[in-house]
Each structure stands twice: as C-alpha cells, then as structure tokens.
Amino acid sequence: MTSTNLNAKHSVWEAYQLVKAKRGAAGIDEETITMFEQDLSRNLYKLWNRMSSGSYFPPPVKQVEIPKAKGGTRRLGVPTVSDRIAQTVVKNTIEPILDPIFHQDSYGYRPGRSAKTGHCRHQKAVLAI
C-alpha cells in the first residue's frame, strides 16, 4: 500500500471525526451517525474505496424547511452521513491548496472569514475616507 493510500484513509478517518463532532441530522437515507457507526470500518472503507477509485457519486440531498428568525421558512439541504464525510475529505484536501491564491479581500466561504466580516471591513474603509 502506498503512502498516498494511507494518507487518503487517514483523511477519511479525520473527516469522520469532524462530522461526528458536529452531530448532524440524518440525510435522505435516514441513516444517523449512530447507525453509520454500527459498521464503521466497512462504511469508511467503502467510502474511501469509492472516492479513491473515482466511482463515488453523492446521493440526493434531503430537503427540510427550517424557520427563519424573522418569520417564514427557508429550505435546507441535509446530505447523508457518508456524503458529509466525503465533502469534508475534499474540503480538507483542497482548502489549504486553494485558499492562499484567493484575493486577500475575498471573504465568502473561507476559513475564519465571512461575508459579514468583509462588509464590516468595507464599511470601516469607507468611513476612514
């Protein structure tokens, strides 16, 4: 087994740990994290194998409506446990590579940044003029 395979397997394990810590809801397959853990080794191996071979395809996302703070609702997509792990593997792999090439004033979907902090920084810059 190559070191790349070992690193990939470790990445899946780390991603599982992060997903478990967030304690998210079950996706469209109704499989909870507790259920996923009943055959953890097999489930993680199956996910790693599919991702490594290029045969992984994400399942549909469960749609739920959640209440908004000021009334009404909004739709939220809930991926399956396996898909959340797969997404976390990809995020943890590409984020350190791609984040440094983003413009310093880019705030959306970046670690430690948000659109709100970007907006506040912009307002401070405008007020300083």
Radius of gyration: 19 Å
Largest sheet: 2 strands, antiparallel
- Give a count of the beta strands, DSSP E runs of length 2 or more: 2
Order of SSEs:
HHHEEHH
**Unreliable segments of 5+ consecutive residues:** none
Cα(first) to Cα(last) distance is 60 Å
**Secondary-structure content class:** mainly alpha
Topology (SSEs and partners):
Layout (H helix, E strand, L loop, with lengths): L2 H20 L10 H5 L2 H14 L8 E6 L5 E6 L2 H18 L16 H14 L1
Antiparallel strand pairs: 1-2
Helix pairs in contact: 1-3, 1-4
Would you kindly provide a written description of the structure presented here, covering whatever features stand out?
The chain has 129 residues and is mainly α. The protein contains 5 helices and 2 strands; from the N terminus they run H-H-H-E-E-H-H. It has helices at residues 3-22, 33-37, 40-53, 81-98, 115-128; strands spanning 62-67, 73-78. A two-stranded antiparallel ribbon has the order 1-2. Helix 1 packs across helix 3 (40-53) and helix 1 (3-22) packs across helix 4. The N and C termini lie far apart (60 Å). The model has no long low-confidence stretch (mean pLDDT 86).
